[in-house]
Design brief:
five-stranded antiparallel sheet, 388 residues
């Protein structure tokens, strides 16, 4: 049966069925082919291309399975490290985040049959801390990055130094207290005796001479017409000043501030790369040839990996966002807001504050066109590639 022509209802229906995740049992990892039903999968297994892939797999099956297993573990640990860090999390939750990508590598192509076996392998190799509960398997990522280890050692060293200073201070105070106690014991202590009255019949008399307090002279207060007018003028000015101070911040301003805070929290992400922005390569692992080279992002994979095309050589590199840096253009050029409350907006660069590492921009399109934003950090904006 021929394929449906472009634009026909049958073509649209097939596209809608193919969109999203399909059943895992009808997926061929060697061919990276997803079938919609059992009949389609059967036809695929009988095809010539699939038979060629099986012959390649039979020649070196162990190496292919090891490659698939390595890729699966690498992507799984990347999601665990980026989204959850060193927090204790359910292993199945991380797996659901991993398979949400349609082009993920399936577990049936790896050496692990179940997720439980994979989690136990993570615990045996020391990549994660694993514990089993009634709600399932929980894992905690073990960060073995040299920079993180060095940072922790520096922090522990500083805490130890602070603790030593506190202990020395405490010992000095205790010695001073002991010296004060020893000196107090050497002095003559007072002797306390019982109070005995010699004449019990004698009565006590109190002779109090109370004198009336002296009268104060009350001077008459005279208000002149000039003084009254001055007092009235100063009181009116203070009242007006208090009113203006109270009117500085209205309820509408407070609502706007609350909305800005909510927008900032919802749009602030740990990933910022997007297509058609100019970035700078900041890693030396590729060699000095590519260090601090500028390029434009052409594609974005898994929110954190970018395909960068360099301007000078025209080569394409696959880089993580940690190895990239935003580029600030000249004043008057277009920039794109890549993070924060106004994420995704296109704006014009108005000025740069080099001391505070921030800039002032003006929204250039959309519903917020014309709005001016000040104090925007360098990391939140990036130069837009105008040469499309």
């Amino acid at each position: 049966m021929p394929r449906a022509e472009f634009g026909t209802p049958k073509y649209i229906a097939n596209k809608m069925k193919a969109k999203g995740l399909q059943k895992l049992r009808w997926y061929c990892q060697m061919c990276q082919k997803q079938c919609r039903d059992e009949n389609g999968f059967k036809c695929h297994t009988m095809s010539e291309s699939h038979q060629r892939q099986l012959l390649l797999f039979a020649d070196n099956s162990k190496r292919i399975i090891d490659d698939f297993s390595y890729e699966f573990a690498k992507e799984y640990l990347q999601i665990l490290r980026r989204q959850f860090g060193t927090k204790r999390v359910n292993a199945n939750r991380v797996y659901q985040e991993y398979i949400s990508d349609r082009n993920h590598l399936h577990m049936n192509a790896t050496r692990w049959v179940t997720l439980t076996g994979f989690v136990k392998w993570l615990g045996r190799t020391g990549k994660c801390l694993v514990d089993e509960t009634e709600k399932g398997w929980f894992i905690t990522y073990v960060d073995r990055d040299p920079e993180t280890i060095a940072r922790e050692e520096k922090k522990n060293k500083k805490m130890k130094m602070d603790k030593d200073d506190e202990e020395r201070t405490l010992e000095f105070v205790q010695k001073q207290v002991q010296l004060a106690q020893e000196r107090g014991q050497t002095k003559n202590e007072p002797v306390y005796t019982e109070l005995v009255r010699e004449n019990e019949e004698e009565k006590l008399k109190l002779d109090l001479k109370l004198e009336p307090p002296p009268k104060k002279e009350v001077k008459p207060v005279v208000f002149t017409q000039l003084k009254r007018s001055l007092d009235e003028g100063t009181s009116k000015s203070t009242v007006k000043k208090n009113k203006t101070e109270n009117r500085k911040k209205t309820a509408l301003d407070e609502i706007k501030e609350i909305e800005e805070i909510k927008k900032e929290k919802s749009n602030r992400k740990d990933y910022w790369i997007t297509e058609d922005i100019v970035v700078k390569v900041m890693t030396k692992s590729l060699g000095d040839e590519y260090y601090k080279q500028k390029g434009v992002i052409r594609e974005v994979h898994n929110k954190y990996i970018a395909i960068v095309k360099l301007f000078d050589s025209g080569r394409k590199l696959k880089l993580d966002q940690e190895h990239l840096e935003t580029v600030i253009p000249a004043i008057g050029k277009l920039v794109k807001v890549v993070n924060g409350a106004y994420r995704g907006e296109t704006a014009t660069l108005l000025s740069i504050d080099e001391k505070k590492y921030c800039a002032e921009i003006k929204i250039a399109s959309g519903l917020l066109m014309g709005r001016t934003l000040s104090g925007v950090q360098y990391e939140d904006i990036c130069k837009l590639n105008e040469e499309q």
